[in-house]
Amino acid sequence: MIPTQVNHISAVGGLALFLACAPAGNSTRGAETTTVTKAETASVAAKPAPLDSNITRADLARIQGSASAPVWVIEVSDFQCPYCKQWHDQTYATFRDQYVKTGKVRLAYVNFPLASHVHAWPAAESAMCAAAQDKFWPMHDGLFATQGHWEALSSPTPVFDSLAQANGLDMKRWRDCVKSGMMKPLIEADHDRASRAGAAATPSFMIGDKILTGAQPIEELRKAIDSALVKSKKTTP
């Protein structure tokens, strides 16, 4: 299960220089981001996953890292957001190698498809249906790698289909999953929980008692993670 932080948040500092996608009409205008901290923090488990084994598997497959990692990083993202792609292309691999693979951090991807991105929902469904076959992260990488192509199409289905084939998915299972809308409740739950926890734009990163919004470089993530690691040591018996 994926924890998320709850309770109220208060803004600190000024505007950062990291770009983010925001809903139409949002006061951030999609190009300004803030770093916010919680007035109070708590970790709560996600709603229990439905009994369907495909959904349970998909829920777990978008988590990377050791179960004993002292810090969670919750990535709130939209596959059609250009700044999510920017973070994926420029920072994700370094972050994964330095923090996830070393056991310091457990990373979870939380879907936050924006209404302004017409293909964001089908992209999220494609990824989560791949997750039901333990192929979330290869599909995640493929979707961001090809974003510039499929976002301009009237229907992205052929591209998503080719990515599923390239990643060795059982195509009948994957197509049936996408067609049935099986993953929609899970994606909706992601969106609702992220909103309640304070996410308002993509990408956002929930790290300890902070939310960082925008395509954060590794240096900024390192500051938040190191702070969370110190706090975790102080609170661990």
The gist of it:
The protein has 237 residues and is α+β, with helices and mostly antiparallel strands.
Keywords:
single chain; 237 residues; alpha+beta; Glutaredoxin; 7-stranded mixed β-sheet; two-stranded antiparallel sheet; 9 helices
Give me the CATH superfamily: Glutaredoxin
Shape: globular
CA-atom Rg in angstroms: 17 Å
Strand tally is: 9
- Oligomeric category: single chain
Number of helical stretches of at least 4 residues:
9
Secondary-structure class = alpha+beta
What is the CATH domain class?
Alpha Beta
| Domain unit count | 1
- H-E order: EEEEHEEHEHHHHHHEEH
* pLDDT < 50 stretches: 4-17, 27-50
The percent range for strand residues is 15-25%
Strand order of the largest sheet: 2-3-9-8-6-7-5
User: What is the architecture at the second tier of CATH?
Assistant: 3-Layer(aba) Sandwich
Helix content: 40-55%
Secondary structure layout plus pairing:
Blueprint: E1 4-5, E2 9-16, E3 33-38, E4 43-44, H1 53-61, E5 63-64, E6 71-77, H2 82-100, E7 105-111, H3 120-131, H4 136-145, H5 147-150, H6 157-166, H7 171-180, H8 184-196, E8 204-207, E9 210-213, H9 218-235
Parallel strand pairs: 6-7
Antiparallel strand pairs: 1-4, 2-3, 3-9, 5-7, 6-8, 8-9
Describe this entry's structure for a reader.
- With 237 residues, the protein is an alpha+beta fold.
- It has 9 helices and 9 strands.
- The two termini are 23 Å apart.
- About 16% of the residues have low confidence.
